[in-house]
């Protein structure tokens, strides 16, 4: 069974059983979210009844209870844990996916509707005047992408413009392409 998302309901990561299950999931590169049951007493009590499982932590995959720490340890020992839970996407794969999300992708501070810095505002104005459809990614919303893309692209600043998965450059490059009349062919992937 391959799952799309795993959920871990720990008492608290500082509590031994929850810490152990988090360590196991991290060791296996499992992608998971968590909910601190101490933050909501109604959820804490209601989940015990719902799942018919009296203790925490509780691991759910695709909305179904898998079990607590003992079950997870058994699944780990048998090798089933790796087939049951999704792996966290590696940063490089995630960046490639984001870069190729649209034929023209702009990584910037803010988005098409609201730039959050002067450089991003300038590049948005240029892009909007081309008539070419493009997507944006707000790097202020995701620090991992913000830092990782600088290394991945070997380009230290933002905004960064990509066409068909290839880095075109930042604001200065886009301005130069506009002035030379080459921007539109580049955005269309003709160069």
Automatic annotation (TrEMBL):
GO terms for molecular function: iron-sulfur cluster binding; metal ion binding. Residues 16-66, 104-168 form the Glutaredoxin domain. One of its GO terms (cellular component) is cytosol. GO terms for biological process: intracellular iron ion homeostasis. The keyword Iron applies. Keywords: Iron, Iron-sulfur, Metal-binding. This is GLRX3 protein.
């Amino acid at each position: 069974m391959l799952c799309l998302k795993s959920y871990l309901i720990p008492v608290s990561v500082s509590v031994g059983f929850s810490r152990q299950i988090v360590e196991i999931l991290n060791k296996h590169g499992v992608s998971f979210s968590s909910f601190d049951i101490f933050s909501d007493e109604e959820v804490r009590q209601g989940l015990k009844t719902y799942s018919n499982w009296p203790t925490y932590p509780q691991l759910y995959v695709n909305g179904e209870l898998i079990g607590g720490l003992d079950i997870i340890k058994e699944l780990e020992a048998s090798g089933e844990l790796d087939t049951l839970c999704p792996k966290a996407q590696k940063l490089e794969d995630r960046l490639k996916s984001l870069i190729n999300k649209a034929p023209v992708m702009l990584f910037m501070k803010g988005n098409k509707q609201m730039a959050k810095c002067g450089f991003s505002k300038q590049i948005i104005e240029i892009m909007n005047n081309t008539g070419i459809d493009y997507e944006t990614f707000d790097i202020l919303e995701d620090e991992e992408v913000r830092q990782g893309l600088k290394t991945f692209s070997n380009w230290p600043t933002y905004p960064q413009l990509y066409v068909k998965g290839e880095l075109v450059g930042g604001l200065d490059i886009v301005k130069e392409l506009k002035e030379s009349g080459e921007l539109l062919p580049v955005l269309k992937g003709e160069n």
